[in-house]
Amino acid sequence: MKTYNIAVLAGDGIGPEVMAEAIKVLDACAERFEFAFNYRHAFVGGAAIDTVGEALPPSTLACCEQSDAILFGSVGGPAWTHLPPDQQPERAALLKLRQHFDLFCNLRPAKFYQGFNHLSPLRSDICAKGMDILCLRELTSGIYFGAKERTATAASDTQTYQRDEIRRIAIKAFQAAQARRQKVTSIDKANVMASGILWREVVNEIAQDFPDISVEHMYVDNAAMQLIRDPSQFDVMLCDNLFGDILSDELAAISGSMGLLPSASINSQGFGLYEPAGGSAPDIAGLSIANPMAQILSAALMLRHSFAEEAAASAIENAVAACLQTHCVTRDLDPNQTVSTAQVGDTIAQMITEEVAAWA
Ligand SMILES: NC(=O)C1=CN([C@@H]2O[C@H](COP(=O)(O)OP(=O)(O)OC[C@H]3O[C@@H](n4cnc5c(N)ncnc54)[C@H](O)[C@@H]3O)[C@@H](O)[C@H]2O)C=CC1
Ligand SMILES: CC(C)CC(=O)C(=O)O
Ligand SMILES: [Mg+2]
Q1: What is the pTM of this model?
Q2: Is the ipTM of this complex over 0.95?
Q3: Beta-sheet strand order (sheet of 105-111)
């Protein structure tokens, strides 16, 4: 039987809670689609600091290197903010993993689920126009990885983009648009930033090779506003590291909750790390109320992009939609609900086993 080796890095806060549900759902897929998973659990982030003294222990990195894909929860939280910045979970574990595996291409797909527009904080007439956006975020360069300086009286972060770094993510965006609605909106701040001017220049060069795709450039401040005014105007949003980070949280909120937005971070060899777009949510950790859907949908992206198991990936996405339709949701999606994290996971796993179809 085909067996996939997965490095499972649950991390901190709600990470272990939502990861448990993703594993449940993956197990249901393995049974229905007749393949197997070999899960290799490893410490990462604050959990690793507390256990072995560093956020990304060599054994965890080795586990990732020896696996077919990484399923990641989330890292960080107030317990570790007193540490020097380069030892904190976010930088020492997550950014390091992204850099180590050169996971430059971050996909964050956001949409309204059929019949669930009311989850969105946007007005119903805006929601009625629909939203189906793929945010493509450059993930291994830009201001998160540039030189940093700190003195007693000042601090600086540097944004540097090389042509090649912009080229490779732009190509991914145009290719993604070919399989979607043929539109790329490239986000920058070319009116004030030198890196933004280069970004726009390179995107225009790549656009020449994709005459079937319409390209539009939008300043990031306008993009933040347009997303709220009319998200239906966007197909693929091409973003640098910082702007993609910020706008994808906005996408999550527009679709209904941070707990709905999955992500895939992929390198040029097709190796990937899959994680919810949100963080460790310390405010709700341990309460069994975290929404596991983003983690579960990230597992679906893993099946699609790392293992080419499209039927299983679609079965998960379908089951999540069906779960939403039966209104089995955590309170981030409906404050009147008392459904637990595990109940959502159980329902989705059961829907996969029973081959339940979403109504749409
Ligand atoms: N990939 C990662 O590991 C990331 C880690 N972080 C870290 O996480 C910690 C908390 O960061 P925040 O800024 O508070 O962002 P966050 O995304 O963890 O939480 C923001 C808000 O969204 C809610 N939320 C997030 N995921 C949810 C879910 N699955 N179900 C229901 N509600 C959910 C939280 O309860 C909170 O109210 C920080 O240490 C931060 O650095 C933040 C983003 C990504
Ligand atoms: C904690 C950051 C390093 C990551 C983040 O916010 C994200 O990937 O969305
Ligand atoms: Mg973020």
Answers
A1: 0.98
A2: yes
A3: 36-41, 3-11, 69-74, 272-276, 262-266, 105-111, 132-138, 236-239, 183-188, 214-219
